[in-house]
Amino acid sequence: MSHFKLALLLGMTVALGPLALDAYLPAFPDIADGFGIPHSDVGLTLSAYVATLGLAQLVGGPLSDRYGRRMILLGGLAIFSGAGVMVAQAGSLMEMSVWRVIQGVGGAFCAVSVPAIVRDQVSGQDAARLFGLIGLIMFIAPAAAPTLGSFMLALGDWHWIFVVLAAYAVFLAMVLQLALFPKLTPRPPVTTPVSTLVTNYVLVLRHTTTMRFIGIQVLCFSAMLLFITHSSFIYQEHFELSSSTFSMLFAANIAFMATLNLINRPLLRRFSSVVLLRVQVLLQCLALIGLVTVVALDGPLWAVAALIITSIGFQGGIVPNNLANALDFFPHLGGTAAALLGASQFTLAGVISALSSAFAGDSLLPIVASMLACSAGAALLALGAPKAVWREKARLTEADT
């Protein structure tokens, strides 16, 4: 299978996560009014989904190594779709949160399968380029998600957003069954007992280089999720913008991410992904320093929006470079390594997001300061990231498996 076709199908799959996160953001005010709750409380449904999206990957990853990518991915789509229908029928915040947790389990099984499939097929710089191409394709989803949500609100109410998500998951299952799985290069099966698969996490946890990259992923994603969680408050409440203007500004983040993703691909032919990762993480941190400064000085909307777009946009280069490096040491345990990365990323980011929802209040400064704190931690880890030439010496991982 060509890299473009593989990236297209996997990009459509991994796009399910951003769609489930972003599509209902413009509906936050309507959901709050419908349930009779404060606007900030709706963010807890997002945090519940994200936290589950992380924890459930710890189960889905080893199972995909043991039973195959097809079973786990298609099972995840079925769970996601069924829970989406139930979310659409929720009558309270608690009910909605419970079904979002179940939906997160399905989303986790899908999310952990994509990087594992990539690692099954390619490695090294090729993996970074493929992750970049997947990212470029999937950027369409978060860019279009708030607009899709606004369109659904114009036609009816927020419930239809989750019905559409459920239908997309069913469509995706049919496409993958016909166009992806029959064309994949077979990988050697992992025949160890399920109980042994759990102990494989020790191999990843004791690999200090991989854990450094996982730390970078967690902190950079946390900075982005803080913005996603509070984006409706920032633009629709703090700056009193309409849902359509909010959707346009949100899409601008994705457009800049796609631009930097495009720039990153040819740079991989001249520089190692580790070097590019270090530079992009540091530039993101500098942009967030500027954002905190502008907010502290009560700066104008255009300056705040420009710095948010810039800082979030650097994810377009950070994610593919970091994923390729984090998974490169585990050619036969791609599902387990991807699960630990995804679980760490979504669970810790979900906790940080939930805490910010509880304590941020009505002020913008604590939100952007929290984003900067996460980015600064990632920058410290990136400064110590190994050079590409060191990586061969660090390949100790799976000799015992």
TrEMBL record:
GO biological process: xenobiotic detoxification by transmembrane export across the plasma membrane
Record-linked Gene3D superfamilies: Multidrug resistance protein D (1.20.1720.10)
UniProt cross-references to SUPFAM superfamilies, sorted A to Z: MFS general substrate transporter
Name listed for the protein in its UniProt record: Bcr/CflA family efflux transporter
Organism listed in the record: Marinobacter persicus
Cell compartments where the protein resides: Cell inner membrane; Cell membrane
Gene Ontology cellular component terms for the protein in this record: plasma membrane
Lineage: Bacteria, Pseudomonadati, Pseudomonadota, Gammaproteobacteria, Pseudomonadales
Swiss-Prot/TrEMBL keywords: Cell inner membrane, Cell membrane, Membrane, Transmembrane, Transmembrane helix, Transport
